[in-house]
Amino acid sequence: MRLRTLLPLAATLLAAPAAADPVVVELFTSQGCSSCPPADEMLGQLAQHEDVIALSLHVDYWDWIGWADTFAAPEFTARQRAYATAAKSEVVYTPQFVVGGRDSLAGAKGLQLSELIAAHRDANGDVLRIASTGTGRQVMADATVLDAPARLMLVTVLPEAEVRILHGENAGRDVTYHNVVRAWQDLAQWSGEDLTLDLPDMPDGLVHFVLAQAMPDGLPGPILGAVRVD
């Protein structure tokens, strides 16, 4: 059963041409959720593809059942709930994927997820780029017409970590997590003009991504561009 879930995802993505800006896939997950490990493994597959930026955001609302997630943060729970509000819903799930800031999918459904990624990949433009200077790295945003105010955001991730879970629904399991978000920082408001920003140095062992996301009515909307800071 697990192979039938994961293989359609891998086959579809391996056959895909390179996109302009990668498709951002956020996974809201928890170490205390017994349904999450297949989705965590799926995100690990996605993290290997250059045309996808795969992000693992650990929520804290499962902590009460006996295991406090070591990567959870209330701001990630708030982000997931903000997506629900934007979709006029009061329901959140774990695991839950959000693709491109617009489409959500509950559960580890490889074929449906690959179809969403393909649709977003085909629609993506070339919005963000990274450049080196004598003093560090910069992100450059190309001018575009925006339907709503947008933010440029710096996302800091831990590329991989294995966690032994001692209590709760996953007690006794060793689970490997990929691209675990450790910090999410606003860089600037963006109204669609050409823009260049200096970026902070990356901490050792961590990786940076920059996202441009529309924020209609202050809620997370479509992700307009994304880039890895190498």
Can you offer a commentary on this structure?
The chain is of the alpha+beta class. It has four helices and eleven strands. It has a four-stranded mixed beta sheet with strand order 2-1-3-4, with helices on both faces. Strands 8-7-10-11 form a four-stranded antiparallel beta sheet, with helices on one face. Residues 1-7 and 14-19 have low confidence and may be disordered. This is DUF1223 domain-containing protein. Residues 1-20 form the signal peptide. Keywords: Signal.
Spans of at least 5 consecutive residues with low confidence: 1-7, 14-19
Structural class: alpha+beta
Could you say which overall geometry the principal axes of the C-alpha atoms support?
globular
Number of strands: 11
CATH class: Alpha Beta
Average per-residue pLDDT, rounded, comes to 91
Looking at the structure, the CATH topology is: Glutaredoxin
Strand order of the largest sheet: 2-1-3-4
Hey, roughly how much beta strand do the residues contain?
35-45%
CATH architecture: 3-Layer(aba) Sandwich
How many helices? 4
Signal peptide: 1-20
Organism: Jannaschia ovalis
Pfam family, one: DUF1223
Protein name: DUF1223 domain-containing protein
